[in-house]
Structure formats: C-alpha cells, structure tokens
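Practice record 12: protein with 6-O-phosphono-alpha-D-glucopyranose.
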Amino acid sequence: MCGIVGYAGHEPAAPFLLEGLQRLEYRGYDSAGIAVFSDKVRTVKSKGRLADLRAKVDAAGGVPGCLGIGHTRWATHGAPNDINSHPHTSMSGHITVVHNGIIENYIPLKEELEAQGVVFRSETDTEVVAQLFDKLYNGDLVGTLIEVIGRIRGSYALGILCTDYPDTLLAVRKDSPMIVGLGEHENYIASDIPAVLDHTRSYYLLNDNEIAVIKAESVELLDLNRQPISHEVFTVNYDISAAEKGGYDYFMMKEIKEQPNALRTCIGSRIHDNEIRLDKLRLTDEQIKNIGRIHIVACGSAWHAGIVGKYVIEELTRIPVEVDLASEFRYRRPILARNDLCIAISQSGETADTLAALREARANDVHVLSIVNAVGSSIARESDDVLYTMAGPEIAVATTKGYTTQLAVLYLIALKFGKIRGILSDAEESRLRTALEALPDQLEQLFADEAALEALARQHAEKDHVFVIGRGIDYGASLESSLKLKEISYIHSEAYAAGELKHGTISLIEEGTLVIAVATQEALYEKLISNVKEVKARGAYVVAIVKEGSRDVEGVADQVFYIPDTADIFTSTLTVVPMQIFAYYTAIARGCDVDKPRNLAKSVTVE
Ligand code: G6P
C-alpha cells in the first residue's frame, strides 16, 4: 500500500526520495509525490507511475533542498489524481505532510476546520492533518504534534515538514509502520526498510505513539509526554541485492527460485541434533500440552497457508484448529478460552486486519504466536511469541516464498507440538522430520518442468475460466494455486473441493475448460481420479499434479506433472510450485505486469 520516505542531510533530497519511493513501488500505488524544503517547500506530485513523477521533477529542473519527504499513494479517500496525492500542505503553506493509514474522524475535523475558514484542496483524510497541525501550531513543533495526535483517530504513519524548522523532519506512527534509518551526517524515515536499505542497515523501529525529531546530525525519540525514549539500534543482515531482481525479469520468478534456500534456512536453522527447536518460545511445554483449541488468523495467501496448517496440525497434534479470515474474526465475537492459542500468519507483519485479530485474541488473554516474515514488524512485535519465516525480502505482490515458508513453520509447529503432546511416536516424528528436511531439495527439482509449464501457459493463456480441484490438503493448496493465477494473469480461477464439484461447478465445465487436478493424498487418490473422469467426460482439458509413481493418471489426464515423493501432509509445499510457474508464464503471455498486478497491494495496512 502507501509508502513513505524522508531525508534530512546535506545532499540533495529529491534523488534520494525518488530512489526510495522506487524501492517501495512493490507495495502498490497509484500516484506519488515529493516535497523538498530549501528557501520554501516545493512539492511535485503525479498520478500514475513514478516515471511520471520523475518526468515532472525533471521538467521543473529538479527540486532543490536537503530536507524532504516522499510518498506513494494507494487511493482510499478520493480518486488517484494529482491533487489527492501526497504530500499535502496546509493553506498557509507552513506544514507539509505525508501519511499512511486512515484518519477515521477526518470528516468532523474537516467540518470544524472549514467552519473556521480553512479551505481544503483535496478529498483526502490526510489533508486534515496538515490543516489541523497548522491551525494548532504555536511555534512548538513537538507540542503541536502531540496536540494533533490527541485530536485524530485511526491509523497513521506521518512524516511532517514545517517551514519554521528548515533542518527538521518530524515522524510519528500509530498502527502503521515507520522506521528511522541512521546514516552518517544524514538520517531517514521510511515506512519499510527496503526504501533506505542501500544507505543504512541501522534503524530505530518506532512503536505506536513515539515521535522522532530527525536532523542531519541527530535523531531524538520522544514519548507523548515529551520524555526521551532510548531504543536499541536494529540492524538488518541482508543487503540491497536481496531486494533487487538479480538478473530476473521479475521479482516473482526470482522469489520462486529462492524457495529452496529460503526453506533450507527456515527449516534447517530449527533442527539441531535430530530435534526441532522452535527458537525461544515463551509458550511452555506445559501450556502446549494444555492447548484447548488453536485459532489461526490471517488474510490472503497467509490464510491459505493456515488452511493447509489446519489439516497438518490436527493430524499430528489432535488439537482442534479453526482458521479464520482475520477481517471476519475481529468482528464476529469469537469464542476464546484462556488455554487456546492464536496463530497469526503474515508475510508483511503489517496487515491491518491480522493485527486487529491478534489484538482481539490478546485482549481475551489468549497467547498469540505469530508466523511473520518481516522482522520487527508490528505483528511480530505485538505477539507473545514470533517464529520468523526467514524468507528474506519479498517484493512481488503475489507471494511465493512467503507462502511456502509459512507452511514450513506450520509443519515445524505441528511436529513439535505433536511430540510434546505424545501424539507422535519418536519413530513417526523422526520419519516426518526427515521428510521435512528433504523438501528444499525436492522443491528445487520441480524447476526442471519450467519449459513445459511455460508451454502449457502459452497454450491456455486465452482461457476465461480455470478450475483447480483437490481433496483434503490438496484442496487447501488448490486455493493458493488458484489465487496465484487470478492475481497476476486476471483469468477467472476457482479452487474447488473435488467432492463438491457435483453440487454446482460441474455445470460450468464445457469443451476445452482447463481443470487442474491436484491428487497427492493416498487415501483420496481414487476418488480424485473419479472426479477427473467426470470433468473429462464433459470436455475439460485436465492437467494433473500428482506424486511420482502415481497410478493410472496418464490414461485419464491430458497432461501430468509429477512432484517428488514426500509425506502426504507435506505435499502442498511442492504442488503449489508448478502452479506458481504456470501463473507466472500465463501472466507474461497475457502481457500483464507480473510484479505489480492491477488494484493489488503487497502490504494491506488498511482494513
Ligand atoms: C495482500 C497480498 C497477499 C497477501 C495478503 C496478506 O493481499 O497481496 O499476497 O497474502 O495481503 O498479507 P500478509 O503480509 O499479512 O501475509
């Protein structure tokens, strides 16, 4: 979603801001802008891509100054146009603001300000912050910000310039990420680490209601009582190349290919001396033995990981698992018991609904264990325990390595809990642990099918509808496979539990309809083959994804892709990969922007 970057230093700010915004492009946006302060604040904004903004900056002969803020906007209040894009400046020109999040009470505030003669230019909630700040401003920058915070409701990460302070950048956050980057004779703000990663690896991660006063030579952190706060410096150990394309045309393919290594790190770092060690969990063995129910909360692909996780955790631990869309969980008054466990899954760690769902769980005294990729993100910090997926930065909007590493952490949890609860024998645990450790190499073998999948994609690129069917865990994986295709190729795709076909979907099958059948579950295999025959009989073109050595499938399906043999409960990690590659090449064949699909955002920080 929206992205923020800011600079206070001695070098020209505009090139820094434009470069930082480029690194945030992956979050999804529909307009962008920068404001730079020298003798006055000059703002350049543009609807559309950053290239459009760059062209405007160049046409203006650059924007002079060494203090500035920039923003990529993903429209929520008001159309994506030049006027509504950020930064927004108050009527007097004193205060300029960039904002991520939503000011929930902006309408009454706007009415109040209008009654006092303030004229608004945009339709945004953000402009209210600039105008309110200006109205309340009494020469005391921090004091006014504290007053503003007392008046606004909602979520915000704010970057603020004031013409009375030519060397100062002000930042604050609540329920929306904001970091302060620490440089040499310059300092930065950003909504996301990759924006400034090639300038520094040292950061302060702001918590809610913490204010940062940033100058070229200093960073001061204050609480709402103006008391100084000391923060540990947070250091990242990946460099910018990990967040760049590295020779691939698109981040998505790079990230697909990074999956074996991501899984090796995620799984390998947690198995020592034939034992799974789940980092330093606060959750004790005694608590694990007493868990009554697990509530998994997540959105999008992370929710799909949760659905597969339910099958695996229930199978290995016999703990009942409910999987909720976070946006539903937070408002449905869930029934929670103190000995329940909530597992929140999120790649970005910033998804607003997932954050709200975990808060709901914690407010009910339920222990929250989160599975997160982005280190130091809000979800990670607000959880009782966190298991990082260690996938490295994921840039493409459509998640790949984020999802498969989430599955890996869920498998580790299931094995560990199953052992602690005495459901898994030592022998069974050892067999499954060995299978788990083999997954990264097995996933790598699947890349051998890339050319065949590309050809398949070209063959079916003009299809209007695709169905992905499976039973049990294969149904869970089908949901993710289907989403990949629809997200980036814009082909209508639906995942169906194969047993449900006869209750509706089968009426949509006609001559040439593409049906992908995932059939890796031994106990359900025959039934799935029968479902394949049913759709074949109605003219479908069937592509089957099965385990090596599967019987009778060649004669039934039109084309077959094989995954290496693994335990039935772990197959989703492998079956999804051919579908990631198929979706990727289908999007290419249809001329779609693979990494930045229309209307979607990588990190959804509003509900
Ligand atoms: C967005 C992304 C999806 C992602 C979902 C949840 O919709 O486009 O790829 O699965 O958010 O994001 P999270 O960061 O919480 O995993």
